[in-house]
Specification:
Distance between the termini: 38 Å
Shape: elongated
Strand content: 25-35%
Largest sheet: 7 strands, mixed
Order of helices and strands: EHEHEEEEEHEHEHEHEEEEEEHEEEH
Number of helices: 8
Number of strands: 19
Length: 318
Amino acid sequence: MTEQDLNERDDSRYDVVVVGGGAAGLSAALVLGRARHRTLVVDAGEPRNAPSAHMQGYLSRDGMPPAEFLALGREEIARYGVELVRDRVTDVARAGDFTVTLERGGRVRARRIIVATGLKDEMPDVAGVAERFGRDVLHCPFCHGWEVRDEPFGVLASSAAGVHQALMVSRWSKDVMFFLHRVAEEELTDLDLRRLAAAGVDVVPGEVAGLVVEDDRLTGVRMADGTVHSRSVVFAAPRPVPQTGLLERLGAEMDETPFGTYPVVDGNGLTSVPGVWAAGNAIGFTEQVVHAASGGYRAATAIVGDLRMADLDAALDG
């Protein structure tokens, strides 16, 4: 793995700067390095899945710790001369090439940019939820359902849309309680209630005060009235906070969704800003690791073609 201090290299010029060193950014960098493009990855070291002990559902990497996955990725890109710096991009401006400003004071230039800055999960403000996230407080049954199958589940509602999560997780356990928390029972439709009943999900009205943890293990959900329901797993819906500030400053067209505001991109991740691509959770809430890696790959192959045609056209004009 190559890590460089760029503070003294303001005139450095790269074909591509990849902002973000998660699955999407590293996958893109691997393709670009193999295509012989001078590439820099700027990574702040804040992956979304850091709280999780393992990642699942990625063929041949099922069960691998996320940190190990990223470490292997960094080793792979280094084989092809890709550089990586531990830093944060604070600004990107364009005057011909892009000028990328780093938090530590360095600046580099790039012909093309990939934004793979991901998102942050803000957990519900219930005592114990944020502290247990990624352990026995979970949000995705596809990521963790198998590992906790058949245990007593709780589902903490953030809105009436939590019904969907409760119905989905009932695939992995027949013992599911849906805690309405601050959602009024009247907000649930008749169809919601009938589906919950068909799935065997118990609806628990009333506000949740916090989680009960004993010997560093979740054992229950405590209600505001003091009642405790024995549970060993709680599913909760985080509020996604996309890290798209760079794209907004570049003037990228954005789209508001129920899960946050994300850039409008084509099938390869190209934004409305010429020369700027986006991949991974920077383009959507549901991009799992396998999707992020695929998105980075697609963006990189598109950039290789884009740069090749630009170079050939410049040669013709010259």
